[in-house]
């Protein structure tokens, strides 16, 4: 899943690819907001992104599109 996080007063959004399922990602975000602490996510390469919940402007999630490479021949 592609995750975009807008942070207050930051000129650019944080973008990462998460290995979590849509349900698990939603649960992780909901729990962080309820706790009021930090949102902690790990990308598909093992890097962690930690954002204080009170500084999050928005979170956008989207399914990762698999792009085909090469040529196809229509018959």
Automatic annotation (TrEMBL):
Pfam hit, one: DUF3107
InterPro entries in alphabetical order: DUF3107
Domain of life per record: Bacteria
Protein name: DUF3107 domain-containing protein
Organism of origin: Glycomyces mayteni
Lineage: Bacteria, Bacillati, Actinomycetota, Actinomycetes, Glycomycetales
């Amino acid at each position: 899943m592609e995750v975009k996080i807008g942070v207050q007063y930051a000129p650019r959004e944080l973008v990462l690819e998460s290995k979590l399922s849509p349900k698990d990602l939603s649960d992780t975000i909901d729990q962080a907001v309820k706790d009021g602490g930090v949102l902690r996510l790990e990308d598909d390469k093992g890097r962690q992104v930690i954002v204080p919940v009170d500084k999050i402007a928005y979170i956008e999630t989207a399914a990762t599109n698999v792009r085909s490479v090469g040529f196809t021949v229509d018959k």
